[in-house]
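Appendix B. Chain record.
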Amino acid sequence: MNASTSGCPNCRADAYVNPHDLLNEATEWLQYARGLTQLLAELVHESDAVDCQRMALGLEAIGALTRKGLQCTADAHARMSWERAALRENGRRCE
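Structure tokens predicted for this chain:
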């Protein structure tokens, strides 16, 4: 991940990350999850026997990557909502 963008592994802890950066980070996490899903699917199709423990670890990793992507997306949505509310409070028009 792009650590220089957020400055920390937890998006919510950095008050200076904007929604655009959070959505970019979410896209990265979800692309990693998609890549791992494709890799596991290829391994299952090509192998005669499936190692259930390793498959479970892979599936848990996909879940963790997806959860991180969703967390960044939710954080971006919250920040956009806060920004919109702040603009309304200051009398500016939101588009």
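Further analysis of this model is presented in Appendix C.
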